[in-house]
Write a structure and sequence with these properties.
Distance between the termini: 28 Å
Oligomer: single chain
Number of strands: 11
Radius of gyration: 19 Å
Strand content: 35-45%
Largest sheet: 5 strands, mixed
Order of helices and strands: EEEEEEEEHEEEH
Number of helices: 2
Length: 194
């Protein structure tokens, strides 16, 4: 079984800084070596500007019989427009990843799901402004009637043996194929938070 958890879409160096001025005191930031890496550093107030990845969550949603899964086609204004993906999005500051998974699915599909497992975690390097860490969840919906919302323009149920449409993200293709080949391979969720 292949394991893959890093997907790079471009070549990059890690010596970039998105701020010229300190967000705390307004002084100029300089590029300093902090903990062995170049970071924006304020010599006035000692603020260190860390550029961290954005946490996100996507879900393979199965129907009740577990023989179909749901994909979403992205809107023309979204990142990777008109391509298909697993539904999901960014985790908000005040929620855990399981809550975010349920919220994102409700927002994009109008489905209420039960999250049954954790399938994978990946680092995605999409472009210099968007590095994400994505948790892929496994969920089940008792209903197949869904309504596209948010940045989704179409939803479609696929059989597990269907050929995949053009997907927006390599990580989605990898995890869908891995799930198809090993449907029992996932971590259980902490039921106290599911």
């Amino acid at each position: 079984m292949e394991t893959r958890q890093v997907f790079k879409y471009y070549n990059f160096n890690n010596n970039f800084n998105s701020y010229n001025f300190c967000p705390k005191c307004g002084a100029s930031l300089s590029n300093e070596s902090v903990s062995g890496r170049k970071r924006g550093f304020c010599k006035t107030c000692s603020y260190i500007h860390y550029i961290n990845p954005i946490p996100a969550v996507v879900t393979i949603i199965l129907n009740k019989q577990k023989n179909n899964f749901l994909l979403a086609r992205r809107s023309k204004t979204s990142f990777q427009p008109d391509k298909w993906c697993l539904p999901g999005g960014f985790i908000e500051y005040d929620e855990n990843f399981l809550e975010a998974g349920k919220r994102e699915i409700k927002e994009e599909t109008n489905l209420d799901i039960e999250i049954t497992g954790i399938l994978n975690a990946t680092s995605n390097f999409f472009n210099p402004q968007l590095h994400s860490i994505v948790l892929t969840l496994l969920g089940v919906s008792n209903h197949m009637d869904c309504i596209p919302n948010d940045d989704v323009v179409e939803l479609r149920w696929f059989k597990l043996d269907d050929t995949l449409p053009v997907l927006a993200f390599k990580a989605d293709e990898f995890i869908i194929n891995r799930y198809k080949n090993n449907p029992g391979l996932f971590l259980p969720v902490d039921e106290r938070f599911a």
